[in-house]
């Protein structure tokens, strides 16, 4: 084993140096999320409001989007954090773990770098061991930071419960990191590995939701999902540690399975042979637009399914959420400034806040597709092969951006339609379909600004393309807290949504939407011009 693990320490140091910024961003984001959630529920929501939240968490949609319902009879702020936040923490950390393992295992083999590394004094198991070690160290740091943030921000200061909330989520995420390691032995490509791993995560979420819907506080079916193990620790209700012991046990089994499978395959190959394609491509697959569709259709389809279900479920809860907002406004002056105190306009203001989340979700897809897909092709060296044929730079990037921004627009339309269908399913007649279509027309140009900005940054300076995420953060802060913080007009103007009509207003003006559409066009032109002028850099 010492020979098989030779060089693990060197690879660990290399990964930590290579991903230090990426790891720091994840740690800071998760810490900020749990701290904000704890402070918000402890300061904004009083006892009646928490009781209303508990009623929501008893509904099927609340169970699917939250937890099994421990402590709903005595719903304190930290019980709400544990019951509603654990699923989101596990989901985010599991996604991070999957991406980390794919990046440092199958993706390295696919690029050919793993073969160069293995040519040195590096053991057969060292790359996988280094990836798992760095993932475990990263999750340990996140656990410590999140536990301290929860302990400091909460009124119910219980360090064991804070550690259970953060540590349980981290151990489940480590399980899905091991799942990605197994998937990397089966699939022959990084995309295939990512797809199998995300499918396993989605299946675990579905099994947990189905099990908890059978019986409040969980049924036997719930225990077949690792996500339930973190939730069944019952943090801040009736803390128990033994359920999470299942996570390291399963993780060890998966690691041993990955080792056994790795011994049966060649480097760079997968046990599941790639399905051979036809000898001749059909006419519909010839061209950069068809290539872009082939590359993005899988991610777009999964995003459509997830966002459609999430916003449909939100629509079914809209009446209860609006009543909860009205009760909060009645006893909280700060929320009155955000939603207004007029009952006739409060509903529109609340829906406007919901629409901010809808639009930002669609905008995030635009950013990922506009910079991630093109940059991935460029880094892997496949872009050079594509451009060596009869395909111009502008035509290739234009096809990628058509799919990226078109997908963002499609997700926005789908989310708004799902939200409307959810309200119709529970008998709500307002806002009408025409009102939702008006919101789509005004919000669409502002939503596309995010993807267009990412494209412009990629066209001129790919290494700085990540700055487009700062616009997402600024938009969220100004949209949610701009009024409460009394921010100046120039700060509010950073958000593209500041320049378009507020959602669900009686007479939405078209001037702002046209201005944002012009901004999108200018950014896309800049993206094409910059890409035509700069060099293509393999491995960037």
Automatic annotation (TrEMBL):
Domain of life: Bacteria
Coiled coil (UniProt feature): none
Parts of the chain that traverse the membrane: 23-45, 85-104, 125-151, 163-182, 194-211, 241-262, 299-321, 349-368, 401-428, 440-460, 467-488, 508-531
Keyword vocabulary terms for this entry: Membrane, Transmembrane, Transmembrane helix
Name this polypeptide is given: Anibiotic ABC transporter efflux pump
Organism of provenance: Brachybacterium phenoliresistens
